[in-house]
Design goal:
about 45% helix, 12 helices, 5 strands, single chain
Length: about 290
């Protein structure tokens, strides 16, 4: 997939202190949680995971389901899960050693297995813990999506991810649950009820590439960087940019293309970065 693909034509879119966790990791997670709470300006119940944010961007507000033509969001959500596990200190890439191997050649290894408290993340963590020898990020995206030719790996598939995430958002008061009748079947849908949360999410993304643009990915908030990239990989980033005027839209997409064209191998070798994040990026632009 071409990294800049998806911005050719503008579309009309309406608009944890547990044993085994060292203090540094605890502090990092607490800091991450605090930053999210400050960003959201609301209680913990409205804080969203990367997976929930990407799904929320992709859901049609009134209809309550994602586009039937979107075949990217499934793998995109699995990428979100791996990045969440990386940012929360549960997984990392194996060390480089004497031979410098590419991001996609390095294996994803367990750092520690303390449960996070999120069902999907803990299920993925359990699969990673049980796998020996370790597998690459690219392989894990395929396994968790069920897109593998190896029947022995199908047990790693995370099923009903969109529906489970939507239920999380219902519990957080962002969505509601309805039944819609289509021609030959009934479908459970999840229309938007909390416009403020989605509006805040969209504004946060717009601000990151416009008024708060830092022109240096290493200075960007890692979660925001991941959100922008995986929203693009899931073909839902356009929904955040659709409300912009033409000039801002052009500037926003130009800056996103700049991020997509980065040398991920070089970025992963810089200090204080997340190698899992860059490996997931590389897997989607392979």
């Amino acid at each position: 997939m071409n990294r800049s693909e998806g911005f050719v034509k503008r579309r009309n879119v309406t608009r944890e202190n547990s044993e085994g966790v060292n203090k540094e990791e605890q502090n990092n997670e607490k800091r991450s949680n605090h930053e999210e709470e400050v960003d959201d300006g609301d209680s913990k119940e409205t804080r969203l995971t990367l997976m929930e944010e990407v799904l929320l961007l992709g859901l049609k507000d009134k209809e309550g389901y994602t586009s039937f033509w979107n075949d990217c969001i499934s793998s995109g959500l699995r990428g979100c899960i791996l990045i969440e596990l990386g940012l929360r200190g549960r997984v990392e890439l194996e060390k480089l050693g004497m031979r410098r191997r590419s991001l996609l050649a390095r294996k994803l290894v367990l750092k520690h297995d303390t449960p996070i408290g999120d069902v999907l993340l803990d299920e993925a963590l359990k699969h990673l813990k049980e796998t020996d020898p370790p597998e690459s990020v690219q392989s894990w995206i395929e396994y968790l999506s069920g897109e593998t030719w190896n029947p022995l790996k199908l047990r790693y598939q995370l099923k009903n991810v969109r529906e489970r995430l939507a239920k999380n958002l219902v519990e957080k008061g962002v969505l509601t649950t309805e039944k819609q009748n289509f021609l030959f079947f009934d479908m459970t849908t999840h229309p938007l009820t909390d416009n403020i949360t989605k509006s805040r999410l969209i504004k946060k993304i717009q601000d990151a590439v416009l008024v708060k643009w830092v022109n240096n990915p290493q200075q960007m908030d890692k979660r925001m960087l991941a959100l922008i990239f995986l929203a693009h990989a899931s073909d839902v980033l356009e929904n955040a940019f659709a409300p912009l005027n033409d000039d801002d839209y052009e500037l926003a997409t130009k800056r996103v293309r700049k991020l997509l064209d980065l040398n991920f191998e070089e970025e992963a070798n810089k200090p204080n970065t997340s190698d899992v994040l860059w490996a997931v990026f590389a897997a989607f632009t392979k």
